[in-house]
Amino acid sequence: MTDAAKLSIGGKDFDYPVLTGTIGPDVVDIRKMYGQTSAFTYDPGFTSTASCQSTLTYIDGDEGVLLHRGYAIGELAEQSSFMEVAYLLLNGELPTKEELAGFSTTITRHTMVHEQLAAFFRGFRRDAHPMAIMCGVVGALSAFYHDSTDIHDPVQRTIASHRLIAKIPTIAAMAYKYSVGQPFLYPDNSLSYTGNFLRMTFGVPAEPYEVNPVVEKAMDRIFILHADHEQNASTSTVRLAGSSGANPFACIAAGIACLWGPAHGGANEAALNMLREIGTPDRIPEFIARAKDKNDPFRLMGFGHRVYKNYDPRATVMQKTVREVFDSLKVSDPVFETALRLEEIALNDPYFVEKKLFPNVDFYSGIILSAIGFPTEMFTVLFALARTVGWVAQWNEMITDPDQKIGRPRQLYTGPAQRPYVGLDQR
Ligand code: SDX
Predict the structure, then answer these.
(1) Does any domain span residue 69?
(2) What does the radius of gyration of the chain's CA atoms come to, in whole angstroms?
(3) Which end of the chain lies in a sparser environment, N or C, as judged by fewer CB atoms within 10 Å?
(4) Which member of 305, 312, 349, 425 is catalytic?
(5) Is there a single domain that holds both residue 199 and residue 347?
(6) Are 250 and 139 in contact, with CB atoms under 8 Å apart?
(7) Residues 215 and 309 grouped into a single domain
């Protein structure tokens, strides 16, 4: 702890402790402030608020740094695997070969879902957005796994965590299959986590499905890039839901609902739709002008970030992965050239430079996902699939945090003061 922070309010002076983390900004501990001053802090959108202590993920927005348990995202994306990153986020250290094998086997053995869960899909229209299906089906999981909903039992917390990480790809693949009218495929335990997901999504019972190793590696890397990201909106939703003691399945369903928003995880779908609407580079100036026009609600989707005021390191890896996948699969998409040109123009435009708006993780992801064969409606489902690892790790950290209590913010009330009721005849 460094020097105290001083606050003068109502003619009185107050000192509040300043807490220092391993790296990153200090925090002013204001937990006693309301009791001492009868005033709240005011911070809509929590732009200056730390909601918790965490050891999972560190972001330096000015430098464009992202660390998971101290390991840089670029190194993890190049050298690790999604299962290994999941183990790292859940347990705090990189696994040994034996630990990784054991963890992967445990996850693999939980990939099947209760057979009656398939009935939930039949209630949806075939053209239902897959994120609507994910919200509904994941929220219903607690109806099937009562034996792992006691949040105070560490054994049950671990089982629920493994079930969520293991079953989310199966449910995601089922959501896709339902939308295209194809039968669900059961998991194949001989495949990797990501290979299994690809087969359940793109395979059909009528013939064997060969997992393309280039696609498998690219997909696994995309999952790594989306695994966790500090206290973003959906993670904060999971933590807030969990703070009431809600079961982990309900908490993850809440996170999925929040992620769906176009300002958050829904931006990957919106970004590709935007790039397709722009079409050719000659139309870019028109969209840049709209993004800068205060009277136009249009924003460049996949650009800007609450924390990154530099290039999102995940976008760097994502752009590189587009090139690798295109070269390897011998495919191309003119929208990639449009995206590169849009980035170049925006990063040289004073509006974007002054506001420090850079491409974020969602700007390039849709281009790869589209090349692999996913429809745009599935993009945020894939984000939710990967982020389930981070949500589960953050939920576990919150539940075991001694400082944890139910989240209950206050407000600045600007409504009417108390007034007498007026009968209907007098109005
Ligand atoms: C994700 O939090 C996370 O970590 C999220 C995430 C994760 O992994 O969990 O990283 C994933 O959600 C990435 C972000 C995906 N969203 C988008 O790409 C949607 C487009 N981006 C914006 O809507 C916006 O940049 C946000 C929502 C991402 C961040 O918004 P902030 O921090 O609240 O900033 P703001 O809306 O107050 O904008 C600051 C200024 C404003 O102008 P002024 O009012 O100050 O004049 O920048 C402008 C905004 O109008 N601005 C943009 C813009 N983003 C911000 N102008 C044009 N295009 C944009 N994309």
Answers:
(1) no
(2) 23
(3) C
(4) 305
(5) yes
(6) yes
(7) yes
Kindly report, residue by residue over 299-323, the tens digit of the pLDDT: 999 999 999 999 999 999 999 999 9
Spatial CB neighbours of 333, under 8 Å, sequence gap ≥ 6:
326, 367, 370, 371
Indicate if ligand 1 lies below 6 Å from the C-beta of 357. yes
- Which residue in the list 362, 401, 403, 425 is annotated as catalytic? 362
CA of 152 to the centre of ligand 1 (A): 37
Same domain, 43 and 148: no
Q: How far is the CA of 303 from the centre of ligand 1 (A)?
A: 7
User: CA-CA distance, 36 to 56, in Å (whole number)?
Assistant: 33
The identity of residue 223, as a single letter, is F
Assess whether 307 and 204 both reside in one domain.
yes
Does one domain contain both 139 and 216? yes
pTM of the model: 0.96
Q: What is the pLDDT of residues 80-128, one digit of tens each?
A: 999 999 999 999 999 999 999 999 999 999 999 999 999 999 999 999 9
Sorted by sequence, the CB contacts under 8 Å of residue 292 that are 6+ apart come out as 349, 351
Same domain, 260 and 130: yes
Residue 75 lies in a domain: no
pLDDT at 225: 98
The CATH number assigned to the domain holding 174 equals 1.10.580.10
Residue-number span of the structural domain to which 333 is assigned: 83-402
For 284, the token pair is 């870019």
CB neighbour list of residue 70: distance below 8 Å, 6 or more residues apart? 58
Residue whose CB lies within 8 A of the most ligand 1 atoms, among 274, 355, 361, 385, for a mutation test = 355
Instruction: Give pLDDT < 70 ranges for the chain.
Output: 1-2
**Strand ranges (DSSP E) for 189-328?**
none
Q: Which domain CATH number covers 46? A: 2.20.28.60
Q: Is 309 in the pocket of ligand 1 (CB under 6 A)?
A: no
Are residue 251 and residue 121 in the same domain, yes or no? yes
Residue the block writes with tokens 């000015």: 62
- Return the residue whose CA atom lies nearest to atom 32 of ligand 1: 306
Cα–Cα distance measured from residue 243 to residue 227, given in angstroms and rounded to the nearest whole number = 21
The verdict on residue 362 lying in a domain is yes
Domain assignment present for 419: no
Residue 305 annotated to the active site: yes
How many angstroms separate the alpha carbon of residue 126 from the centre of ligand 1?
32
Residue 21 shares a structural domain with residue 104? no
| CA 379 – CA 191 distance, rounded (Å) | 22
